[in-house]
Amino acid sequence: MEIIKVENLNFTYPEQKIKALEDISFSIEQGEFVAICGESGSGKTTLLKLLKRELAPYGDKDGNIYYKDKRLEELDARIAASDIGFVMQNPENQIVTDKVWHELAFGLENLGIPTPVIRRRVGEMANFFGIHQWFRKKTTELSGGQKQLLNLASIMVMQPEVLILDEPTSQLDPIAASDFISTLEKLNRDLGLTIILVEHRLEEVIPISDKVMIMEKGNIILYDKPQYIGQELKEIDENHKMLSALPSAIRIFNGLDTKGQSPLTVREGREFLSNNYENKVVTLDRFSTNYKNEEENIIELKNIWFRYERDLPDVLTGLNFHVKKEEIVSILGGNGSGKTTFLNIISGQNKPYRGKILIRGKKINKYKGKELYKHNIAVLPQNPQTVFLKSTVKEDYKEIGKVMGYTKEEINTYTKEIVEMLSIKELLDKHPYDLSGGEQQKVALGKILLLKPKILLLDEPTKGIDAFSKKVLYDILLDLKKQGVTIIMVTHDVEFAAVASDSCGLFFDGEIISTDRPVEFFSNNSFYTTAANRISRHMYNNAITCEDVIEICKLNGVKKDYERQKN
Amino acid sequence: MKSFSSFHPTILFLYYLLVIFISMFTMNPVILGCSLVGSILFFSMMNSPRAILKDIIYYFLVFILIAITNPIFSHNGETVLFFLNDKPVTVEAIIYGIAIGTMLIAVIFWSKSYSQVMTSDKFVYLFGRAIPKLSLVLSMALRFIPMFKEQIKKVNQVQKTLGLYSSDSITDRVLSGIRVLNSVLTWSLENAINQADSMKSRGYGLKGRTNFSLFKFDKRDMTILIAIILISVIVVLGFAFNIFEFYYYPAISILKLSRVGILEYIFIFILMILPFIIEVKENIHWKLLRSKI
Amino acid sequence: MNDKKIKNIIIIILIPLCIALGVIIFKDRKYNLISMIIAILSCIPIFLTFEKGETSTRRIVIIAVMIAISVAGRVAFTALQGFKPVAAIVIITAIYLGAEAGFLTGSMSAIISNIYFGQGPWTPCQMFSWGMIGFIAGLPFMQKLLLKNRVVLSIYGIFSGIIFSLIMDIWTTLSIDGIYNMKRYMAAVATSFPFMAIYAISNVVFLMLALKPFGEKLERIKIKYGI
């Protein structure tokens, strides 16, 4: 049975010429799990919001949306509110009340449901989601993952038929994100809930979805089963940007020009490789790229001990670390392992109680006043919004120029340089909060680059941004490196670290252990490594990225009995 | 947790209302004394000995201050002790000062334990029925405050690494404070819209909203409610029949101690130490239980 | 019974009734209690209009944000003793969002900041003072005046610092003497003078520096989301 049907939907925002959605038609069966993807600005969020009546944006709309054969506008207000649930991107901004139990009950209170019924439903859901342990807590005391789970649960108590989610895991760390996505899978499988999900984390989402919809410029360019989308997308455009956002298994499958049903998960990818490819050549030949051992250390940390307060446990325990000039270094590690604390040590915001820090050969406490931050160290914080103060990007840039004591001409030239490098010209006159996550981050980076730093510290630079923005960020980092900037980032993003860095370290138990070049680093890890490596490690030694895997597969060639096995 | 605070919020609110009202309503020294004893006893059940001692010493000083300074402001009374700047200092004024000090400190200690007992969720619940919108605003604001504090700290750090207003001069402090607050204001206002959307998408604004709470009105609440109502009726009768009448000026009146009067005072005393009794009873109960195991 | 009636009844009957009760039945000297009750009663009409009125969800959330900012704002000025942005934020809120929002922000800030710093019989009085500071600033003609004229704005800032302090001193006097004692009042005013001065000055400084940037933010939200 069709639960949602969209017919010839067009939508234009007020005072905009270009349609945000153009003649969209599709339908979703009851119980289906549909993943929607596309570049930012492709109309995904607009479409989702139009499906939820209460959130429908203002603008010119024509065409029809049906929920169970009834036009959305004609639905009873109570049914519209309870049957279609909506989870948003930022876990923080959806919570209303200060107590977990009250938040769970909020929707039911609005529907006017009597206390005993609320009590039963809330209890049931709290159990299903494992919330009962923190049922009486304050909502501000929860972790990001718990908050998003609470948001989901407080919609599930209203017993929706359709659940719509707009990038629900983009602000979560990988483990919390995986948990969240498997909860969705469970809801879909055990309760038959229809789920419509927009996500960046396609590696995990695509394998569990029944259908994938790819959007571009307000149109649906593809709507099919996940096994076929890779191939079909390639047929539409050989170099389509979305191709690089697909799960590794599909990308490898695509890169090897195979036809048929593509593998989706790591397991299927492994089977695909062992069934079809030889492994005569096990190691990919690599010449060590610009690993300049003779260069001086630009940052040196020796035996650093740190704790926040006297009575609290140590966060850093005898940490040693050094960085060569003009390198990109990634520090990986779990949540709360002290990665951000470590960055703050380098930037002088946290002061260790023991140990020595040398920045460009000079002790950190010898830097007086603003010296440390003037043409020296700059930090891009995890949340780029903390950087903005003014009403337009341009004003923000001007102000930092003033603080740095640049002349008017200097401000203009520097701004121009940075604007060109980041290609953010059209964003300059906008309000920072009107930009998308990826844009906000670029603009924030621009502001920080105006400090003309020699060392750039990045805290989770890929959090909440999509695959294209990651690619752009990667190019920017390479550019900066060429200009002589040393870059240190702490991140959860294994895939990004594998591509972008010259060396990687693992943060564990207050120390940085096993610093190595990415190839050695990831091929020696079995869990903390890229999906491409997990797909290929049983056959090949050092293939880290999808490109590596494709290259080594091509070197080895297809198994002779490939055709027979396939039949 | 603590036994008295586990009563239904309505009971707690009613109790505090009654006790504070009586304490502020009368100047009768016996009632004020009962109130002071009751408030301090209960407060000391809820806090560590160190905190209690610190508070008691501090408020004792306040008490002395009020008692001593009252004659400076008030020259009523017949029994003149001596003259200060040609103004009489009277025994009545000093004793009035002592009484008023007792009242103020009793009320302050009641307020202190009130803050500990009536946690925000009880408050929100209590007013959720009468003023649902405002109690929701209250609940939202209570969630925002720790969030904003956190964000203020973050922005502060970031601004420092941008080399902004890092000196210790007052101008820099004021300016940086306002900048930080400005940034947090933008952040919170923009995000507030999301929250409003989340509320609407969960049906906020539909007619006939109900109020859910975890609080249950049980038998124990009923018993105590009846007890409180009975005692208050008795006390109000006492006031109506002028049993508690007492005045300080021009001369201090004599305490009327009829048989009914004594009975009334006993009831007032019971009312005032009720929370303390409940705590003690619970403590003994637990000790017994433990010794049986 | 509609809310207007309730409001009128409360204002016209209850408040004078309280005073009358105080004077006649309680044989006066109970001004401390009466002042508390009057302060609470004066808040009720605006609370009720807000409850019964058609306030948009967005506006409700924004009022909650402003309350929280005024309480949490203190943290941004920890380096400056005694610098409290509450009154200034209440005034800015009132200028941009009107008298009702101003009153609510003021009175609710009092309740909430006392959750952190201690409730007491002074809470209703504080609610009323901060509420009224917001209410007056949010009256249409005051809104215009305060926005246009910086001198008026400064005067209002000083006024609200002083009036808050003076009202609280009245409360102190009433609670000690039971009646209004001029001498005691003067002494209370004198002891609280330094705080009053800091308060008035910080209000002016804050208003001067923050009205424009904060106002821009509120204005933008109002336009962008049609509040």
Automatic annotation (TrEMBL), chain A:
GO CC annotation? ATP-binding cassette (ABC) transporter complex
Q: Does the keyword ATP-binding apply?
A: yes
Molecular function terms, GO-annotated: ATP binding; ATP hydrolysis activity; ATPase-coupled transmembrane transporter activity
Its keywords, alphabetically, are: ATP-binding, Cell membrane, Membrane, Nucleotide-binding, Translocase, Transport
Where does this protein chiefly localize? membrane
InterPro entries this protein is in? AAA+_ATPase, ABC_transporter-like_ATP-bd, ABC_transporter-like_CS, ABC_transpr_CbiO/EcfA_su, ECF_ABC_transporter_ATP-bd, P-loop_NTPase
Outline the extent of the ABC transporter domain: 4-242, 299-534
Cell compartments where the protein resides: Cell membrane
How does the UniProt record describe the way this protein sits in the membrane? Answer: Peripheral membrane protein
Q: In terms of domain of life, where is this protein from?
A: Bacteria
The family line of this record is: Belongs to the ABC transporter superfamily.
Specify the protein name.
Energy-coupling factor transporter ATPase
Please give the organism.
Anaerosalibacter massiliensis
TrEMBL record, chain B:
Q: Per the UniProt record, which residue ranges are transmembrane?
A: 12-44, 56-73, 93-111, 123-145, 224-248, 260-278
Extract the InterPro entries matched here: ABC/ECF_trnsptr_transmembrane
Q: Which organism is it from?
A: Anaerosalibacter massiliensis
Q: Supply the Pfam families for this chain.
A: CbiQ (PF02361)
Q: How does it sit in the membrane?
A: Multi-pass membrane protein
Put simply, this protein is called Energy-coupling factor transporter transmembrane protein EcfT
Can you say where in the cell this protein is located?
Membrane
Keywords tagged on the record: Membrane, Transmembrane, Transmembrane helix
Q: Provide the Gene Ontology terms for cellular component.
A: plasma membrane
* Stretches assigned to coiled coil: none
TrEMBL record, chain C:
Cellular component annotations (GO), alphabetically ordered: membrane
Q: Which residues cross the membrane?
A: 6-26, 33-50, 56-77, 89-116, 128-146, 153-174, 186-211
Entries under InterPro entries matching the protein: ECF_substrate-spec-like
Q: Which UniProt keywords apply?
A: Membrane, Transmembrane, Transmembrane helix
Respond yes or no to whether keyword Transcription regulation is given for this record. no
Q: What is this protein called?
A: ECF transporter S component
- An example of a Pfam family matching this protein is ECF-ribofla_trS
Specify the domain of life of the species encoding this protein. Bacteria
Give the taxonomic lineage as stored in the record.
Bacteria, Bacillati, Bacillota, Tissierellia, Tissierellales
For the keyword Membrane, the answer is yes
Question: What is the species of this protein?
Answer: Anaerosalibacter massiliensis
